[in-house]
Design goal:
180 residues; alpha/beta; 7 helices; 7 strands; 34% helix; globular
């Protein structure tokens, strides 16, 4: 019988926050468009840390570190992951496009690409735009993005939690980039 012993923290070879800050990053950012839940923001920080993303943009009326509710779910990732605050998601998306990022709105829309059919180019940089828990990504931001990505769902609800859906999309992009 095989015993599966859980790994101790020291065995996992994780980077320190200082090492993380100077390490090579996945060419991917998260843009949080009016995400109101501080727990969701904290979860986005943990996802960005787990996959060594370049940064998170916190846009609009959104909480920001330092905050105890963010820290509760980020578990310190808010100290390692680079982040920026902006009043305008639209301005951030336009700036990222000027810098050569492919912008992906995580949204159910006409003409959206199903996540399992998304194909990314290893030579490009990407931005995943995740929207408000109730309204999703603002229409003006959807209009500006290069493409919409949708996660297929088969139940009665029309959407997933924003931090869950963002994590799924981040994983798919990171998996295809496979640079780390």
């Amino acid at each position: 019988m095989t015993t599966r012993q859980k790994l101790m923290m020291e065995e996992m070879g994780r980077l320190s926050a200082d090492e993380f800050r100077v390490a090579d990053k996945t060419p991917l950012v998260i843009v949080a468009d009016e995400i109101r839940s501080l727990n969701n923001i904290g979860s986005l920080f943990r996802t960005a840390d787990a996959f060594r993303l370049e940064r998170i943009y916190l846009c609009g009326a959104v909480g920001e570190p330092p905050h105890p509710e963010i820290h509760k779910t980020a578990l310190g990732a808010e100290f390692s992951v680079d982040w920026r605050k902006s009043d305008s998601t639209l301005a951030v998306v336009r700036e990222l496009k000027e810098q050569g990022y492919v912008t992906l709105a995580l949204e159910q829309a006409r003409g959206s690409v199903s996540l399992e059919r998304l194909v990314v180019d290893k030579g490009r940089k990407y931005a995943i735009v995740a929207g408000n828990e109730i309204r999703g990504v603002a229409q003006e931001v959807v209009d500006e993005c290069d493409c919409c990505v949708e996660i297929p769902q088969f139940g009665t609800k029309h959407s997933l939690n924003v931090s869950v859906s963002t994590g799924m999309a981040v994983w798919e992009v990171v998996k295809q980039l496979s640079i780390l």
